[in-house]
């Protein structure tokens, strides 16, 4: 087959596969997981009626959203009212394009677009996500949605700074923005949160774990704020703003906001996994007569069925890590209370921004001292 | 670069650029400007300048325009929508634009270089992020540092001004 045609064909296959077979089911089942875990934490049962253990609940929810009357209030700005839910959903799905979700499968790299500005692309698209919320708040022509939209835009702008600054230590270390290179580096030199793996006697590598852990914590918290999750869900704080920016929305349009939030959570977790937790890499303990005990790297580079199994294994590892992070997101939501708005702003500008800034210098000094 | 991609992105840019001026609703204007920026970013990317394209989206579409929108939403939009077009100003502006284009046409038409066909660009893989970094911190280090100081001064100025408002 002609190489261009092959590229187009495999890319389409990957896009359809990742969006419709992996991300969207994952979104609906993370809603289910949210309800079950919240029930577990609050000592309730949660949805357990539809199917075994309530496993078909997402299908019932989807049917309900689609079949409900699609009502448009009279005083809204119609065009923007319809546009906003789409703008909330699309950027969340677009960011996944540059994330390597596996090594190779049948010799095809498991990343949709391997561009050299990887992480910047993620930030750029994520920064467009705020438009959906702002326009929803404005076009609803109503007080509470408007307040929610304004809060959301200022919150996202504030936390984007910490988000961007927190990843700079990684680039200083790797020297590349391309996400596949960052994963490759982590396979060879240990994951970002544990850079001393494989260099057990090197003191500087142990020191490097300090700025990397700070980066990891700041980045994760900023992702919480960017995805409007509790304890930072001020844009839709029920006790103050009714439903926030989606107060005036119903049926499928509301569902798009809802799904967009979970899709943003999944892509956010995918970025965290790729940058800090080794991406699709999982070392497997192995033993044979020639080498004795050693760690085995499984990827799709082997020929035949071994390569296929390896490639599939990497994809499962990646989404397994993402699922664990999603569970963490859910756990935090049902554990911590909400911040007050001024606390949120102070935390973002006075605390995280400074920490991330100082952290860059710390990382730069340690990296300068690293033996080449 | 594929001509189809070029024409699509340029058309997107020009149509939404015109929409910025034609729309009476400031929010619609701001959003048109965002789409226009996206078209410009697409043009950069079709020239393999991924870094510039992404920065265009990140800085202008993602940060500057969000702030614009933020301010616009807090204004009273009805006064702006009611305003009539001033036809004298419109004619004057159009005349200036036409004269400017005529001048450009005459000047460029007389240049010898403008009549030569472009040499085809050699297809190559450039790591533009590294190149831009090396240029900024190598050949243009001093201007770069000066711009950094300027931005710092502006930031401090903004903080001082906004603090004075409070008291």
Structure characterization notes:
The complex is a heterodimer of chains A (372) and B (167). Chain A contains 12 helices and 4 strands. With 372 residues, chain A is mostly helical. Chain A has one domain. In chain A, the strands form 2 sheets. In chain A, strands 1-2 form a two-stranded antiparallel ribbon. Chain A has a two-stranded antiparallel sheet with strand order 3-4. In chain A, helix 3 (78-94) packs parallel to helix 10, helix 6 packs parallel to helix 12 (341-369) and helix 8 (203-226) packs antiparallel against helix 12. Chain B has 7 helices and no strands. Chain B has 3 domains: 1-79, Four Helix Bundle (Hemerythrin (Met), subunit A); 86-117; 124-167. Classes of the chains: A mainly alpha (372), B mainly alpha (167). Chain A binds chain B through residues 80, 115-117, 120-121, 123-125, 127-128, 130-131, 134-135, 138, 146, 149-150, 153-154, 156-157, 160, 177, and chain B through 27, 31, 34, 50-51, 54-55, 57-58, 61-63, 66-67, 69-70, 73-74, 127-129.
Q: What order do the SSEs of chain B take from the amino end to the carboxyl end, as H and E?
A: HHHHHHH
* Main pleated-sheet profile of chain B: none
As for the CATH topology of the largest domain in chain B, it is: Four Helix Bundle (Hemerythrin (Met), subunit A)
How does the overall form of chain B come out from the CA principal axes? extended
